[in-house]
Structures are given as structure tokens and as C-alpha cells.
């Protein structure tokens, strides 16, 4: 099998549905890959590993109960132009470099 971060969304979904991999494994793979390349590509302004892993654990609970929508358990990045309550959101601007939205 490819590295988990190389799976397509469809491939990852099928493996999650079949319980051959877990959401936590996918999240850890994505976080590991981000750590490997972030210094070169500068794609992520804020990385919240603990939240990603908590959400992956929740997704695994849903999946184990048979509740799996197409994106359940799939790691996702949120572009830094979307307000994320309590998480630094800069919109790529020096003026907003320390902005933490209340909503």
C-alpha cells in the first residue's frame, strides 16, 4: 500500500469503511507529512495537532457504529481565509497575524 498520505479520498474512504485503516492513522500520516514538507512549502499558518487527533478519534467512533459519510475521517486543511473560532486566522496578512476570531 502507498503511504497513507498518498491515498486518494476515495481510496482512504474505502479503507476506512472496511476498517483496514483508522482515521487516527490517516491524521497521524497527514501530520507527519506536513512536518516533513512545511518548511519548504509554507502552506499551513497554524497546525493544531491535538484537535486533529481528537477529531480523528471521534470519526473512528462514528465509523465503528456504521455511520460513515464520504468525508468522515478524511484529514482536511482549512484555508487561512476562513474564520476559525479560537484559532489564529491571518488571511495571509501582517495586519491580522495575531487575529484569533471569536466566531
Folded structure, characterized:
With 103 residues, the chain is mostly helical. The protein has a domain at 4-75. The chain is 43% helix and 0% strand. α2 runs antiparallel to α3. The longest helix has 19 residues, at 23-41. The radius of gyration is 15 Å and the shape is globular. The termini are far apart. The mean pLDDT is 95. InterPro entries: Amidase, Amidase_dom, AS_sf.
What attributes does this structure have?
mainly alpha
In brief:
It is built from three helices and no strands. With 103 residues, the chain is an all-alpha fold.
Mean pLDDT score: 95
Oligomer designation? single chain
What's the tally of helices? Answer: 3
The gyration radius over C-alpha positions equals: 15 Å
Anisotropy-based shape? globular
Order of helices and strands: HHH
Distance separating the two termini: 40 Å
SS elements, strand count: 0
- Contiguous runs where pLDDT drops below 50 for at least 5 residues: none
Largest sheet: none
Amino acid at each position: 500500500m502507498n503511504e497513507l498520505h498518498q491515498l486518494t479520498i476515495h481510496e482512504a474512504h474505502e479503507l476506512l469503511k472496511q476498517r483496514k485503516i483508522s482515521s487516527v492513522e490517516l491524521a497521524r500520516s497527514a501530520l507527519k507529512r506536513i512536518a516533513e514538507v512545511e518548511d519548504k512549502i509554507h502552506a499551513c499558518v497554524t497546525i493544531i495537532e491535538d484537535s486533529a487527533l481528537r477529531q480523528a478519534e471521534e470519526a473512528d467512533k462514528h465509523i465503528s457504529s456504521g455511520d460513515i459519510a464520504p468525508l468522515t475521517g478524511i484529514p482536511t486543511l482549512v484555508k487561512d481565509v476562513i474564520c476559525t473560532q479560537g484559532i489564529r486566522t491571518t488571511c495571509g496578512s501582517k495586519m491580522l497575524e495575531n487575529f484569533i476570531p471569536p466566531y
